[in-house]
Amino acid sequence: MPIRGKPRLERRINEMQVGASGFIKLDALAFDLNKVPYLCVIEPINKRKNDAFKIPIKRTGSGEADYDLDLRKIKYKWSLEEVPFSYLFDEDDDEIQRKVVELKYDDSNPRQIVHKRRKYTKAENLERELNLAIRNEEYELAGKIRDQIRRIKSKVREAK
Q: What is the DSSP letter of 119?
């Protein structure tokens, strides 16, 4: 018997496009003993807030951990874990880096999360600054940053 109708498939955090937003479950986020946040990017995301999906999330860039999470209205206390999400993996699991991302808060924007170990290019850093300038409605500054990004990208194209 054939399948009738289109199945509704759940989206995952790591499948989000830049600019996409939604809500994630509380257990998609964990903290180690040093209060470093970790995001399990294979967890589902929902378009609407409900009892299960409470944390607003937005994809702000193409980096592994370019997400904006807003925890200000979340009335939940996470327990600290020695190894966050350890129940998902074997010790020798090479897949762990694609499933769990170590996060930190950017000093200039405490809600902005960036990948702790990754080295960002100048253009990627400028793109984050551009997004921040636009969010703060600093359009003159955003125009200048956009011009800098274009110059860098044209130099990269010329070098190739």
A: P
Crossing angle of the two packed helices 139-159 and 122-135, in degrees rounded to 10:
160
Higher-confidence residue of 118 and 135: namely 135
The predicted structure's pLDDT at residue 1? 66
Amino acid at 98: R
Q: Which residues pair with 68 in a beta bridge?
A: 58, 112
Q: What share of the chain is helix, strand, coil (3-state, %, to 5)?
A: 30, 30, 40
* 115 pLDDT higher than 50: no
Q: Are 25 and 103 contained in the same domain? A: yes
Tell whether 67 and 102 lie within a shared domain.
yes
Is there a single domain that holds both residue 144 and residue 112? Answer: no
Sign, CA dihedral 27-32-37-41, equals: negative
Q: Which domain holds residue 139?
A: 120-160
Same domain, 23 and 102: yes
Q: Judge if 13 and 26 occupy the same domain.
A: yes
Looking at the chain, list the stretches that DSSP marks H as alpha helix, in order from N- to C-terminal side. 96-99, 122-135, 139-159
Q: The pTM is what?
A: 0.61
The two tokens of residue 50 are 């409900």
